[in-house]
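Title: Comparing notes on inverse folding

I've been comparing how different people in this forum approach sequence design from structure. To keep things fair, I'm posting one structure and asking everyone to reply with a full sequence. Here's the target:
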């Protein structure tokens, strides 16, 4: 197993490369495969009246429609959780491909795991990646919408103490894409919730996930090397960019020096006084971000206080994105809207808040 790591000032991104799995997490740490199934079929589980799963051995959304409350910690959406009796919260990070990755610094009763790799944070500290054949119990959500999982299998853990120090003391890990693959996901920062809709032919026709919503634009996207990273072409002013959607970060731009200079001269890129961190780039406002939908509607947006880098994105190669200019559309963009992420049909709906 080879480990390749990189760090930006607004997000640490780590790559784990093995003979069987390549995963690029978008939020702060390495991830690995988070569940395995032997027969390819989801287990049958009892349902509560709300549609929630009472108990399941697979860490995955259950039922037809499932809503989970979120709490924002800075730019990060968190879901309340409990692992082996220890309470905390899990970051909801679409940039992480695995279903679940746990913080074994906080969850001290995971039991022994198999070391499957080592890595190093940008500041020099090493960490060990552990694979646990199973975890006794995991639950997420609250009240009637609580999902419980008994002995979910093949769970990854690592020491995420820095997340407890830098973001929230209760940071117990990440929930990623494989938690909800096969579902549409509606993200509502203002309403404090994420709703998952099972992808069915009836739903494709009815679009009940848009009932009562005002659709501002429908954006077709593609995925390349990684199934969890929606990518769309867009323009900032007259400049071509690739947009990458990701809930596990604030956002930011990677562009060549010529584009940066031109955008500053054109007033599209405005440095602010707020810094990203010691030695980091100045935070910037980026205006005239133009996204065109397949429904004849287009959106012109801005992002505020995001860092800008004169270097290739560390996520570019794993995502399969050779474009010179890339903008990550995280909380600074997503918070202007409600959004529906339709992975099965490869569309993102921008909805009025």
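Reply #1:
Here's my take.
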């Amino acid at each position: 197993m080879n480990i390749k790591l990189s760090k930006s000032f607004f997000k640490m991104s780590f790559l784990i490369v093995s003979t069987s799995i390549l995963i690029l997490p978008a939020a702060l740490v390495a991830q690995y495969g988070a569940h395995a199934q032997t027969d390819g079929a989801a287990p049958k589980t009892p349902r509560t009246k709300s549609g929630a799963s009472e108990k399941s051995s697979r860490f995955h959304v259950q039922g037809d429609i499932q809503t989970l409350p979120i709490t924002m910690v800075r730019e990060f959406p968190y879901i309340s959780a409990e692992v082996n009796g220890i309470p905390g919260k899990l970051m909801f990070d679409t940039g992480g491909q695995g279903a679940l990755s746990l913080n074994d610094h906080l969850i001290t009763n995971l039991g022994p795991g198999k070391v499957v790799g080592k890595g190093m944070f940008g500041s020099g500290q090493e960490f060990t990646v552990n694979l646990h054949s199973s975890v006794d119990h995991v639950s997420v959500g609250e009240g009637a919408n609580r999902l419980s999982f008994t002995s979910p299998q093949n769970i990854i853990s690592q020491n995420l103490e820095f997340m407890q120090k830098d973001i929230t003391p209760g940071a117990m890990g990440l929930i990623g894409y494989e938690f909800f693959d096969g579902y549409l996901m509606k993200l509502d920062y203002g309403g404090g919730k994420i709703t998952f809709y099972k992808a069915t032919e009836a739903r494709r026709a009815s679009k009940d996930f848009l009932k009562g919503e005002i659709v501002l634009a429908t954006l077709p996207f593609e995925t390349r090397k990684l199934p969890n990273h929606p990518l769309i072409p867009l323009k900032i002013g007259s400049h071509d960019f690739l947009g990458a959607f990701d809930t596990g970060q604030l956002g930011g731009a990677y562009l060549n020096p010529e584009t940066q200079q031109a955008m500053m001269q054109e007033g599209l890129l405005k440095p602010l006084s707020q810094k990203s961190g010691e030695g980091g780039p100045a935070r910037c406002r980026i205006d005239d971000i133009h996204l065109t939908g397949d429904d004849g509607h287009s959106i012109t947006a801005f992002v505020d206080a995001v860092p800008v880098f004169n270097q290739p994105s560390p996520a570019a190669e794993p995502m399969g994105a050779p474009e010179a200019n890339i903008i990550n559309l995280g909380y600074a963009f997503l918070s202007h809207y409600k959004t529906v992420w339709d992975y099965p049909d490869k569309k993102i709906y921008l909805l009025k808040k």
